[in-house]
Design goal:
Elements: H1 2-27, H2 31-56
Helix pairs in contact: 1-2
Length: about 55
Amino acid sequence: MLLSKAIYLSENIKKLKFHMYTIANQKGLDSEEVLMISQNLDKEIALIQKNFLKRTH
C-alpha cells in the first residue's frame, strides 16, 4: 500500500510540474523563476524519497 501511494504521489507531482510550466508559459513568467520553483520542488521530492527509502529498509 505504501508503494502504491508513493507511485501515485510521483505521478501527481509530474502532472503538477507540467501544469506549472504551462501556466508559467501562458502568464509570461520569467523562465528563471519557473526554474527556481522547479528546483525547489525537486529538492523537496528528493527529501521525501530519501525518507521513504529509510522507512522501507
